[in-house]
Amino acid sequence: MKRLIDESMKNRQKRRINESAISMYDEVLQHLQACRHHCLVFHGQEKTLNAVASYIRNESDLPMVIHGKSGCGKTSILAKAFSVANNDSPVTIIRFLGTTPSSSLIISLLKNVSQQIGVIYGYQSTKEIPTKFSLLVQHFNEMLELATESKPLVLFLDSVDQLSASYETKLLQWIPAKLPAHVKLILSTLPVCEEDNLLEILEKKLSTSANFVAVDTLDREEGASIVRAWLKGAGRRVTFEQQLEIDRVLSVCSLPLFLRLLFDKICRWRSFELDLLCFVELSSTIYDSINALFERLEVSYGKMFVAATFAYITVSKDGLSETELEDVLSLDDDVLNSVYQYHRSPVRRIPPLVWTRLRSEIPNYLTEREADGVTVIKWYHRQFDEVAKDRYLRNVNTVKAYHSLLADYFLGVWSGRPKPFRYTDVQRKVFSLSSDELENSADRLVPKQQLVFLDDGKISSYNLRKLGQLSHHLVKAERLEEMENHLLLNFNWLYAKLVAMPLQALFGDFVDALSASHDLEIKAILDSLRLAGSSLTRYPDMLGIHIIGRLLPYYRTHVKIKRLIDSCDRDGIQRNALVPANHCMHTPGGPLLYSLVGHPGVPFGIQVTSDKQYLVSVSRICMIWDIEIGDLWRSVEPPIHGFMRGLVLSKDDKCAVCYTNPDNEIVIIFIATGEFNKFSNPIRNGDNICGLRFDGTHILTWSAARWTVIDMNGDIGAEGDFLHGDFTILEMFMTSQGTKPIAKIEVPNRHNAPPSSSRFIRATGFDFNDFLFSGCVAIAEDFSSLYACSVDDGKIQSTKIQSTAIVHHVRTGQAWIAHRELGDTPHTVHALTLSGDETWLVASVDPGFVLWKTTENGVKAERINLNLTKGKKNYSGSRNMCVFSRDNQYMMAGSGTMIFVYNLTYRRLVKEISAHFDRIQDIIGVVTPQMNIAISSSSDRTIKIWNFNNITKPVPTPIQHDKEIDSIAISGRSNLAISVLRDSVGVWNISDGSLDRTLDVSKCETVNTPTGFIVKMNCAIILNSGKYIIGADTQKLIFWETDTGRVVHLHYFTLEEDEKSRKYSRQLLLTDDDSRVFVILRTKSNFIKPDTARKGLCVCIKVDTMKVAYEIEFICNDDCPSVLTSNNLYIVIPIRGERSKSTQLGVWHVNVGIFLYEIGLDKLHPFPIIDLVQQRHQNSQIAVVDRDKASLVEVNRKLWKKSTTPCVDSFLRWNGHCTSDGKFGVRRSVRGKSLELFSLLTSTAVRTLYFGQHPGDIEGSITITKNDKHAIYHQSRNNIVRVFRIGGEVESNPELATEIAAWPLEARVCGMDNSSDGTRLVVGLTDGRLLVYVIADGLLEENMKKLDECRRLLGDKASPNSLNGNNNKGVSPTSRKWSKAITIARITAKAHVATRSESKICCVQ
């Protein structure tokens, strides 16, 4: 035996067959064996077989679909068709879906089939088969393309409806809409599967029903012949009377499943039994036959055991493994009492042999499939499922009991502990038990059901069965409270399910709970997860942060949300130790439905497919999103340089076309398969492409003067130009004749004509005249009419009609005839747009928008003015970004970074949303019976989905400025921080992240300034004591009193008339004792000659007297910051050397302002200096930093070791920041893929700090917290803030030095600092938010106390918020009742005043 095993292993090694290949071969053999079995008993269905054979021979490039109701013989038909095709086609592959574990899940199915195709065609690749659904579908399609004319491929997939339910399976996204050459695909399916009309989905996907074949029902003669053939094969015969009875039932039903049940019944007849006794047992329907089968099994194995076994299989979500079934039966005391009715077992478990014998009775009716990584058993035919439900699960309480016991099993309630039971009366008599012995308990030896499985203390895998099954059974058992405690309000459960299963599965738990009980808190949690869905898919460790950051406003008022946040605070810090201290993200339930993140660049194009199912967006890559769930479905990365623009989809949703910038290439992306084609610039002379149109067969591109039409292969079909008139093409449109486009052209400005009167529309190859217009035009989709400015019968008449007038023109024959004048506007029109249904015309003007209803009759239509908020200007540019909701109730418009929502019924602005932190690129609307949304894309690289149904619903919003934050500063000894904006300073309390006040610079007194001078806040600091805030704008230094916000002092700078000589404040420095503040001013840099010397000024002001102590003038090269030494004796300023002209260090005495000496850096730092860093551990040392290294420099000349060497030491790849004791620093590793915690004493690495998820580029800034416990690293390119533990017990245990947090940010970081105790991190963002995080390191007690303190402050200070939209600001219920009563009284009193001189109202509560 040993020799045989060794030889087998050697042979396997020689063939180099890995485990996956062996699994594939086993899978192929199983399905071939099943095919052989079906073919042996196959008879009839010649018509369907001929249709399959005809399809294989014809030229169709679409899949073939065979459909019919359950039990009609589809499986046998495909098996027979496969056997016939196998004789004619070189390559045939078959899978009977749902019959094996690998054919039950779409992922394993596609992997297995792709692997088989690759082996057959000799495909070799070093890459592994992808496991992500979208990439796997793309790989599957690539494998299909391996088929050749000499080696065609025919693929049979039986019972598509048997695939385990998943979102991808239901939508059948994996089925190719168009097959490659030499490939045939034959599918079989039920018409309807779990309320999904599969036939309708397939017909819509394939755009035709030509290859759809319905399976015909067998007649009586065919059924009888099949039964006779089966009997002959089994070596059995029936009597004449028995044959008559068989013919009788076959005349009622002749479905193949019924024939199988009938045959199994006939095979049990015995020749010595009376015929009449047998006939009584025959049934004439599938339902009755299955019932008879169940009844026979109950007689043989016991009714209770059979009923419970079939019931558990039926109520299970995806089936049960044999081990699970035995465990569950062992927990069911009714089953055990029936099995052990007459004897006592030493172990209270079900005997395994009992189930094995029962299963052997029904081998053809149960199937093995894969679910949650386990092989489970389930009914193969749905009729068995229906009969089992009707027979065993009629009683609602019985169903709940079965689900409840399954829930207990997956919860592990009875693992490792005895489960009590009670003996029956029969057992009491048989076993001679006393009354005291009737109650007992026993360990059922069931598994523990832990959530995760550990290996050496690390998570090796997750309990997928528990994650996939538990929620289903808790909901069905109506144990919602336990579901909330163990699942929905448990961070560990949510995180495990997010990591181990698809995002939609996590949503499904909440959806199931809401279907049983509509709870506003549970719905708010679900909406929070949906809001963060796109981000959580990429960064699952952000789960706790998203929950806290979005739901924190409800922490005080909603118990369940508070419990979940507490769970995130307690358990979530193990995944991400950065915990929000304030409300910092969009709250669920409002206008924002979810955000889509992941684009590496600006999404310049977004379009929605015609079925409103997918959103296609392009930047450097093309991303296709599922709109319903907000998840990425497919990502396509064509090899291009720059960005893709001008996105257009074909009407059949098969292709997306765009052009690239700056290479001017045409890219065609096939949405269904992820494939793409790329063509070089089709426009003659290589002009830059300005736009693109696509009608499904032709692509129209144009430049400023030329246009070209190409087909899908890149061949030119037509082209033209407007060079003869020196015209400029503004826009072009496709017509029904793709090679004859329509152009909107701008005429060159001649004879001082106004630009607004120099445009026209021309049709190439069409018989209608040019149409002249002024300014803007909106054209109907069918080109039958248009709306334009300043036109009259197609001729410009600027003297008759105002330049802001809008006229409706209709095309009649060759001419455009003025139909009516809609009216004029008081402002210049920048853009005209028609709504999707062409019922509204929208004009973009400076104050906002002007609307006309195009369906109104009359000479002039009513003008509706919709203005922006006061003081704001419409920045929508040359095109409107306006969309309309369902029934045109709302209009949403984008301008700059804002979204404005107007109610068209009341004709007013109802909502102003700070939608993005960078300019909005586009807005599109999606309106269906199920959806009423708008989609916006922005230069901030995000795409956001807005819900019109909740557009006016009030929800708490994060506190933020309406302008970009430039920098931040933190007080050293108080809980205050400031944010510096262009025209103001914000004062924040970092204990709870609240904005205390905003200090407006414009309200400060000003003096006469030079012409064109702009007053702008440049920098600001707050005293360590928090008493004063000192800010420097371009004109003056301002002292504010922090408590009151009052300006207590102004110090004006000298403003030279010559701009080149004018100095601007660049930096503020403060001594540790708050005694002196230093203002560093410099002239502007010369970008043309960057080495030009610049003048600088340092002004020292005493804080107590607010008077200037001294001024220092210097010459410098750049804006490298200055620094104070830690003993506050020296100020070091980078200056321009007198001889070398390079940057040197000038040292001045802080107290008296005397220049001491100059420190040369020529030999020490050949590269430009970028930073000077104070060293806390040395009184007079600083770190001088360039791009390559940092050097420790001793400023005090008396302490120099050598008279000419101020440098103490140098360290490569270090940025100058270290711990307060000077022992450790953090630097980039040699390879640049990680960070290093290194010793400043020995310059050796102590620990490598590896990045967690999404490492990306190493470039970024590193700081160390003031308590020396953590290193903060901002990864600039990925915009991720990472926290590494470097303090505490790290010196004795380097393994503890690791990444404990990573937070990817949407907006760019403009400032970052940590609190004086090092427990909080403050980050300022360009979108106006100031984020306060607690570094919740579980190994540091002081950090955890700070988190508890933040939550207590939140409970004490936060104003109450309600999920139903009624935020009552802490008003008591009694006060609210009186408020309503008083309101009623006022209304009633007013009514009485109208009729009487006196009125008395009494309010009684």
TrEMBL record:
Domain NACHT: from-to ranges: 63-232
Tell me the domain of life: Eukaryota
Domain (NWD1/2-like winged helix-turn-helix) ranges:
283-400
Q: Could you tell me which CDD domains the record lists for this protein? A: AAA (cd00009)
Q: Which Gene3D superfamilies match?
A: 1.25.40.370, P-loop containing nucleotide triphosphate hydrolases, YVTN repeat-like/Quinoprotein amine dehydrogenase
State the organism named in the record.
Paralvinella palmiformis
Location of the NWD2 C-terminal beta-propeller domain: 960-1335
Q: What keywords appear on the UniProt entry?
A: Repeat, WD repeat
Look up keyword Flavoprotein and say if it applies. no
Q: Which InterPro entries does its entry note?
A: Beta-prop_NWD2_C, NACHT-WD_repeat, NACHT_NTPase, NWD1/2-like_WH, P-loop_NTPase, Quino_amine_DH_bsu, Quinoprotein_ADH-like_sf, WD40/YVTN_repeat-like_dom_sf
This chain's protein is named NACHT domain-containing protein
Name the Pfam families on file: Beta-prop_NWD2_C, NACHT, WD40, WHD_NWD1
